[in-house]
Amino acid sequence: MGRGRVHLKTSGQERALSKLSAETGAGAAGSDPPRHRGHLLGDGVGCVSLTDFCEPPTPGGPETMAPPQSSRASLDFGGPLGAAALILLLPATMFHLLLVARSGPARLLGPPPYLPGPEALWSPRALLLLLTWLGLQAALYLLPARKVVEGQELKNKSRLRYPVNGFQALVVTGLLVGLGVSAGLPLGALPEMLLPLAFAATLTAFVFSLLLYLKALVAPAYALAPAGNSGNPIYDFFLGRELNPRICSFDFKYFCELRPGLMAWVLINLALLLQEAELRGSPSLAMWLVNGFQLLYVADALWHEEGVLTTMDITHDGFGFMLAFGDLAWVPFTYSLQAQFLLYHPQPLGLPMASVICLLNAVGYYIFRGANSQKNTFRKNPSDPRVAGLETIPTATGRQLLVSGWWGMVRHPNYLGDLIMALAWSLPCGVSHLLPYFYLLYFTALLVHREARDEQQCLQKYGLAWHEYCKRVPYRIVPYVY
Ligand code: NDP
Fold this sequence. Notes:
The chain is mainly alpha-helical. 55% of the residues lie in helices and 4% in strands. The strands form 3 sheets. Strands 1-2 form a two-stranded antiparallel ribbon. A two-stranded antiparallel sheet has the order 3-4. Helix 10 packs antiparallel against helix 11 and helix 11 runs parallel beside helix 15. The radius of gyration is 22 Å and the shape is globular. The N terminus is likely disordered. It binds NADPH dihydro-nicotinamide-adenine-dinucleotide phosphate (NDP). NADPH dihydro-nicotinamide-adenine-dinucleotide phosphate (NDP) binds next to helix 12, helix 15, strand 6, helix 17 and helix 18.
């Protein structure tokens, strides 16, 4: 990560800083002119076949392995010990939440109501179901895409190409599920299988991360992520060594980021709604709100799928246990916690309060979408009329930083919108329990930590220009508070 070196260099020239960031591999190379970014290859009308983007990146960088990162920098997440603790703690927390959500007292901070035996966790049927789901989503990923876009420039100056058909996959999945339910598929039985499904997803994430780790051993240096190459196997297994592991055009990280986990999340929510209807005659207003808000979030992410290509997960973090477990297990099984809670602990919700909550979600969404779209539009084409009038700060890399509009309000307006939505997802569950607020608490911690990591990377990339930006926009996430 080269943090120490960055601090030493801040008084030097910014050119030196951008060179340093290229040397230390700070994500996608920052020296590309913005006009080349997110180049649209499809015309949006004709379909582009898989073979159109099935090509290896042009190797232009060194083929030798990168020097161990631990010798160069301090490590994130508390180093190997922190990573080892998280590898155990994250699955343990997920199982704790699953058990507590269905227990009477639903105490977030108490012990779990019971410890499940192996027979409650291991089910070949659950594993088969999970693998079928992953297979279906992989098949939908491989369908011809309406358009194919290029990602950010890599260390070897090449760019990878990505199919944009996530929303299409969501619609097809929705149709298949609808057909299945009308043909008698017992979707309402899914909540009873959450524990073995979560166990199968955890096992899959472990095995998958191990394979990714082994694959990275033979990857060329230019393909490795800036973090996740410390030389410590536990730390690197957790962070992920390879930036964009692929087999031919199939990009494992891009596939996992938005598809199987996010769609499983809304499917679990829907199953919980159906089961509530079976139990109580009709779904509650609170359940409708939680389902509606979270479906909007997932559909939005898939509609704006290209946007993920400029996020830290794709441009900076390697693909290891952190993202694999997060995408495949943590998201579907813990993000559906509010709906799980509501099934076992029905909450009264009147129309006036529901309207206030809807308004809150709308405000959060407006900020979240406005900020993300503004940055993505600007990064794709700074001359786009929607962003051309915004004030900017030039940087030595040739790229600019927005300093008005959403990005002039706080340094991470998209996080603010996301947190407001997180609050709106918890409020339908009432205020009698802390459990439904777990997502808000965890997400606040995640975004505060993520914001700090991003600031380090931006300082490394932009040096003095980033200092100037921080002076002009002093608050990180919440205006006048943080
Ligand atoms: P961002 O999309 O905020 O990307 C950060 C990058 O934006 C920076 O590295 C920098 O990259 C660029 N940037 C920063 N400031 C400026 C500026 N002033 N002008 C122009 N560009 C700027 O980061 P994330 O990947 O963390 O988040 C993406 C979205 O995903 C957010 O909405 C977040 O809330 C959401 N999210 C949701 C999660 C969930 O579990 N629900 C988990 C994590 C994130 P560069 O200059 O190189 O372009």
